């Protein structure tokens, strides 16, 4: 069963991880932390995208079973599946976060979809409550960012600077 | 008919992918100066009439004549791909000179006319660049135009509630004569777009 290329260190490391996993399992906790949470200022007021990073530093796997927020009617989890040039969103009921794994919600892949969000402004924070099967609820404050990086509102100052150029 | 178009589009997409790969490792005989994938003459803007966000008729072929034109199909309830693409293009456009901007336009065609009325679309586009043109029309007109341009659209049968629309995520660039020139895949960096636009605009000048 075990891969033949496993080194002694690997075995030791594996044993340590296994022990940690067992220990963690006994305590029925996983070490979940959520960071880099942002919500992008919606261009259509009905829907905003959210991105974040989930770290599970524990040995046991966990599962994200849903997200809610006071600042939106509903928060859905979606994955963008690229098939040739076709982008299709697929709603996810749960997201597995294995022991020692990092799962990133980022543009072009997994993302949160906030339906009917409150009126948001750049710099606001939005609480996101993530429900994990093992770790329970983890709340993170997501920062609201503009649609176009470095752009605040309609036009960028950059524009003016380059007007006479070229 | 539709099936054949889809198959051809699929073949072209595959070809484009292969070309795209080749571009990253330039080999003799393939020295495309562009960041996007060259699709010269593969598609032609169809003679199809839509409605702008201002409620005016817009014929994709005739009304875009004389201007380098980028076309993207999407929908405003799309939280990730569409706003990211629009934001990337708007950043690319910002880096052009005022004169260059006069010779380039961006057209967003909604793949979801049921929810994207002209008001929503205008507001949505204004958050990226108020010069972007938004087009809507009959489902059949939109789907036919998309198929003509090798862009796939998948709409769920049940369009109630928070439905999603699958759509081709590529941006297509057309010459002032309406012939396809370049395709930018999703994730093309704004700086790469700017480089391509400058090159194309210099050629036209």
From TrEMBL, chain A:
<dbReference type="Pfam" id="PF04314">
    <property type="entry name" value="PCuAC"/>
</dbReference>
<dbReference type="InterPro" id="IPR058248">
    <property type="entry name" value="Lxx211020-like"/>
</dbReference>
<dbReference type="InterPro" id="IPR036182">
    <property type="entry name" value="PCuAC_sf"/>
</dbReference>
<feature type="signal peptide">
    <location>
        <begin position="1"/>
        <end position="30"/>
    </location>
</feature>
<protein>
    <recommendedName>
        <fullName>Copper(I)-binding protein</fullName>
    </recommendedName>
</protein>
<keyword id="KW-0732">Signal</keyword>
<dbReference type="InterPro" id="IPR007410">
    <property type="entry name" value="LpqE-like"/>
</dbReference>
From TrEMBL, chain B:
<dbReference type="Pfam" id="PF02630">
    <property type="entry name" value="SCO1-SenC"/>
</dbReference>
<protein>
    <submittedName>
        <fullName>SCO family protein</fullName>
    </submittedName>
</protein>
<dbReference type="InterPro" id="IPR003782">
    <property type="entry name" value="SCO1/SenC"/>
</dbReference>
<keyword id="KW-0732">Signal</keyword>
<keyword id="KW-0186">Copper</keyword>
<comment type="similarity">
    <text>Belongs to the SCO1/2 family.</text>
</comment>
<feature type="signal peptide">
    <location>
        <begin position="1"/>
        <end position="22"/>
    </location>
</feature>
<dbReference type="InterPro" id="IPR013766">
    <property type="entry name" value="Thioredoxin_domain"/>
</dbReference>
<feature type="domain" description="Thioredoxin">
    <location>
        <begin position="39"/>
        <end position="205"/>
    </location>
</feature>
<dbReference type="InterPro" id="IPR036249">
    <property type="entry name" value="Thioredoxin-like_sf"/>
</dbReference>
